[in-house]
# Entry
Amino acid sequence: MNDFTYVGARLHAEGVAMKDIAAEVGTPFYCYSVAAMDCNYEAFTRAFDGLPATICYSVKANSNLAVLREMAMRGAGADVVSGGELSRALKAGMAPGKIVFSGVGKTAWEIDAALEAGIFQINVESESELIMVNERARSHGVNAAVALRVNPDVDADTHEKISTGKVEDKFGVDLPHAPDLYKRAASMESVTPVGLAVHIGSQLTRLDPFREAFSRVAALVVSLRESGLEVVRLDLGGGLGIVYDGETPPDINDYAALIREVIAPLDCDLLFEPGRYLVGNAGVLVTRVIRIKEGHGRRFVVVDAGMNDLLRPALYDARHRILPLSEAVPDAEESLADIVGPVCETGDCFAEARPLPPLAEGDLLAICSAGAYGAVMASTYNNRPLIPEVMVRGDSHAVVRVRQEAEALFALERTPGWQETGSNRDSNIRNTA
# Structure
């Protein structure tokens, strides 16, 4: 969060006071820092300097076209998990030759779109999917490069809803079945197995699960090669954690050292799929205090952002740092408060019993580390329009997604014929009563 700092007691995104953005676009809104994204990207690429590594940015973390273009400008490809994400990556200028398509539920049209775009690799996660990719590729008259995503049965020690590498999780092929399926892929007419893929979860704060998973994948590579099968690529996924509020995730250089030790000796081309690491701490959600509500033994700070805008606290019990846009005086007395939104759900809560300086109606707050899995998971629950996204670069800023108008919430809905004339409807109801 070094690019979100107080300057003259006002919280800035790089060289822009976020109060000024709030005055321009209203609240709530997301704000992204280009400098923070650039710093994170440079740290990641520098850690793997000298290795045959390609960064495929995980589009699901933040799919705003401006964010994708920033990644493309730095040379990143994309990891996509839907046809929609594929379309966004291509529209943002990401090279098809650097796009990987992951996910357990690819449909025929999505596979067709990937083949037509000529993407780098499809990560297949089941026998059924492998058969479909082969059939679709044959119908297109092309040969598809595929990697077999394996499930190493490793507990990532993260939230259960973002753990993806245990046998009870839906992702990947169990290790015992992987050799036979890889061999079958090698015998198919229209696919070429080029390697393996693995991703055990998101927001990992220890290296041990990575070591265990990568070691099992390395052993599988050796076994496949001993069987005469070619393995030239390894997609090692993403999952490296960031600091939200007090976590101590591994240093990127320690993570890279582990890969140099366990994976590099295999002499494979490497793919990485960072998402949260690149954009998580590059964004904040700015919200305004609507009112202070004193309850029995509780103080509620009601803000205009809701769980429909930022779902992580309600979905994952996630804890985000929350800062006032006007810096509190050094000796300000703090008191406990719950930061809650206006959505009609008790789960619409951003913080419980959080020590906060004095706040008043109209004050502005920044919910930190909201650049990943924020706007992309937003909904219009309670018929609340989607909020703007703003990007800052130096002392300039731009709205990269405008605030949705209320009219758009029902613009795609249609009235059935029997509702066109209320009197006929009432008559029909009486006649059938």
Summary: The mean pLDDT is 93. The two ends are 65 Å apart (CA to CA). The chain has twelve helices and 21 strands.
